[in-house]
Amino acid sequence: MNLYANLLLRYRAASGRGRSIGLFFASSLLSRGIGTVCQLLQVPVALKYLGSEGFGLWMSLAGVGYFITFADFGLGQSVQNRLSAAFAKRRPGEQQDLFVNAAVFLTVLGSLVFAGGSLALRHIDLTRIFKIVDPEVQRTAPEAVRAMLVIICLNFPLGLGQRLAYSRQKGWLHNLSQAGAGVVSLLAITAVARAGGGLVATILAGQLPIAGANLVLLLVQFVQLGWIRRLRLRLRTRTMKKLLHLSGFFALQQLLTVVLFGLPQIVISTNFGLSAATQFNLAQRLFSVFAIVQNAFLLPLWPAYADAAANNDYPWMQKTLIRSIKATVLLSIVPMVGLTLLSRPVFHLWVGQDHELPAMSLTWLLCAWNCAVFIQQPFGSLLAGISEVRAATVYAAIGTVASITLMYFLSAHFGPQGVVASLILGFVPFPLAGTVLQTISVFHQSRSSVSPKANEPILNKAC
Q1: What is the radius of gyration, based on Cα positions, of the chain?
Q2: What is the pTM of this model?
């Protein structure tokens, strides 16, 4: 029996949940592979055209975007978990109410964020904040910020396309849309660079295809669900209260994500210049390849965990967690360490020898940082999928405060390396250790629950 026939046989024999995970995983590998190649090819094109400062400003604005997405109060993650339960229980009325209320809230919120950001931009000296030297970058910086702000705010409501797809366990739809967006972005950036369109046009070329893909994803699902003609636009106070109650915990956890991936770029660019930010970004982008690999098999598990929790299928959850940890080590951590050993020739091959490369000490610290994050992700995905996030939120808050405090002191003495070291020292003893202990506690409680009432799904208890 050939490989294709064997895989097809396994797919047909799998449960509905298993089929969804398998299809999601396969499409993730394809789309993320395409996306990774496109992102890697974007770097030399954009870096050569924009220069170190222009490229560094673009990446720093992307880091600011992490802070802005925190402003959704975790509503995206909350509505995904709620929708997963509604689809598992086949409640179309509840599905529409959840989506409509979340969409209205995020649209209003995005409008307010844009208005506030535009007002604040009038009183901010971007040249001083980012230590910009290039006159052309100084001139175009305000418009670049406005362009990025528009796209980020558009994605507040448009991002619900991803949440809807995940909650239906049809994440492959989102994967295909993002793969297409990656290809279009690469082609658009190349075209802008050849035409000499400038920094603002480059940012729009890189980011607008993502917003367009989210819009297409939403429309496709509206057709599939029959919502084009019969979507009920009813705003319910009770529904919003439920969403915001759970989203508060997710919002606090998002603060940790903001620090992990947004704050370092900003601290380095504002304290050590945009050239230093570019070096940091080059090293982190190199390791982001392995984060993409991990996300390919972890993202399908989030809605699957929600479905399993609704059916009290804890043995499946435990077995799946162990498999995801093994996959993380074999597919992400081990190859990432190997790549770090070869990072210098890889950097030269990637961006050429005309740009200053990251120091080896910074590269190894980023490798250690990513290893810690990768180990935590399987446990965090399980807890998020079943909405057991209260204790994890406390650990995240403590780790965030520790990282910020250490960053203030260590960056002054050790430069960008001190920034990364601060992330590691704040993350390992709190978010990493805390999520592991909380996951062990969840499985212990599931084994000790014997009565029907005690066996009520964790998702319902948490919500």
Answers
A1: 22
A2: 0.65
